[in-house]
Amino acid sequence: MTAGRPQRGGSSIGAVLAQLRPEFPDVTISKIRFLEAEGLVRPARTASGYRQFSVADVERLRFVLSAQRDRYLPLKVIREQLDSVPEDATSLSRIDLLSQTGFSAEQLSQLERDGLLRAGPGGRFTTEDITALRTIRTMTGLGVEREHLRAVRAAADHEVVVLKSFSDPETVRELADLFTSLHTLLVRAGLRQSS
Predict the structure, then answer these.
(1) Which of residues 177 and 18 earns the better pLDDT score?
(2) Where is 78: in which H helix or E strand?
(3) Which of 15, 39, 9, 11 has its CA nearest to residue 29?
(4) Distance CA 17, CA 19 (A)
(5) How far apart are alpha carbons 71 and 140 in whole angstroms?
(6) Cβ atoms of 134 and 101 closer than 8 Å
(7) CA dist., res. 123 & res. 63, Å (int)
(8) Other C-beta atoms within 10 Å of 104: how many?
(9) pLDDT per residue over 82-99, tens digit each?
(10) Count of CB atoms within 10 A of residue 86's CB?
(11) For position 90, what pLDDT does the model report?
């Protein structure tokens, strides 16, 4: 093995930096080492002692950096969120999401900045995120602009605030379905009145 290079199946810290820099221009090797020292990422080590980052490690770093930049969360809160992630076989990495939807990394980052896509703890996504991205692609193909999509996000956020005031999970699920139905009916009624 060449000095400084990871064994097959992992990335060196320099390679990880190159992957993260387009989205996080301020990230440095020192920052990645600091996050490792804080226990937020745990790369394997080669026999020579070099860090060997897996795809999951890079996704964890991406989640941490996003949470700091976009939500101003302290490391303690971010660590708690990461530690609470269940091992869920249906969760998807960022790479999985890109490959299954055809979106570019830049497009995905823009949707995250617009609040239209939000990674869960550990930087993981779900199959519902795939459905949301395919819906967004169809909508934009029909001429819907970014500001219109942000308005949909804002409306959804308002509904979430209302739903969070209920404590019973079953009630919340039922109300979420009812909100969706009522929203559809109100939109159709509005279109009938304006025609």
Answers:
(1) 18
(2) helix 75-83
(3) 15
(4) 5
(5) 27
(6) yes
(7) 5
(8) 10
(9) 776 554 446 788 888 888
(10) 8
(11) 62
Look at the alpha carbons of 51, 53, 57, 63 in this order and tell me if their dihedral is positive or negative: positive
| C-alpha pair distances (Å), 7 with each of 44, 58, 115, 183 | 10, 16, 37, 53
Structure tokens at 10: 């992992």
Identify the H or E element spanning 163.
helix 146-163
Nearest to 136 by CA among 159, 119, 120, 112: 112
Q: How far apart are CA 108 and CA 102, in angstroms?
A: 10
Q: What is the pTM of this model?
A: 0.54
3-state SS class at 125: strand
At 121, which amino acid appears?
P
pLDDT tens digits, one per residue of 139-187: 999 999 999 999 999 998 999 899 989 988 888 888 988 888 898 889 8
Q: Sign of dihedral through CA atoms 38, 43, 47, 50?
A: negative
pLDDT digits (tens, 9 = 90+) for 51-68: 999 877 888 898 889 888
The separation between CA 186 and the C-alpha centre of its own chain, rounded to angstroms, equals 31
